[in-house]
Amino acid sequence: MSAPVAVNHRRSVFGALAAALPDLALPRTAESGDERPSLRVVEKARRERRRHIGTVACAVLFVALFAVAGSQAYLVQQQRHIDRTNIKISRAEDDAALLRIELAQLQSPQRITQDAAAKLGMIPAPTPVYLEPRVTDDLHAAEEPPAPTPPKAIVKATTTPTTAPAAKSTTPTTAAAAKR
């Protein structure tokens, strides 16, 4: 018996709260003596329209989030490409700087003088020779140069040794070397 008392006690507490709270139901008309609110039938199309709107809104949200993720991935790829290109550019600039330094060293007069003396056996001139143009050089500058003469054909003598000793050879190259 104690259980029903507790339930009744709860009902009385909730009843007191319900009586204290304002009635949020549809307004009741004073003319109708009913205590129940009037019910209305909700059209099925309205419920389905709301469901369709919710489905479309979720699909649009999904597509928008997917587009954002795709654009972020594209940006990451492009940034990686830009970074690689910047690295290539900096390496090329470093190589160009090294090549400019090497070119300056190769073009230096000291290096050219050293290579000329060491590799070609050249020596510096004791006194420099300066060329001075003559007055008539300008007059001859406008003239046509003479036509080049065709080279003369050089006929090589071909001799075949008939009975030559093995120690001496009569070929043209050895004969020219022997005359020297």
Low-confidence spans: pLDDT under 50, at least 5 residues?
1-7, 175-180
Radius of gyration: 56 Å
Specify the biggest β-sheet: none
Helix content: 55-70%
Question: Hey, roughly how much beta strand do the residues contain?
Answer: under 5%
Topology as a string of helices (H) and strands (E): HHHHH
Number of strands: 0
Structural class: mainly alpha
Give the overall shape. Answer: rod-shaped
**Termini separation (Å)?**
149 Å
Mean pLDDT: 77
Number of helices: 5
Summarize the structure.
By secondary structure, the protein is an all-alpha fold.
Topology:
Elements: H1 2-20, H2 44-107, H3 109-119, H4 137-141, H5 172-179
Explain this structure to me?
The chain is an all-alpha fold. Helix content is 59%, strand content 0%. It has helices spanning 2-20, 44-107, 109-119, 137-141, 172-179. The chain has five helices and no strands. The chain starts with a helix and ends with a helix.
Write out key terms for the chains shown.
disordered C terminus; 5 helices; disordered N terminus; mainly alpha; 0% strand; 180 residues
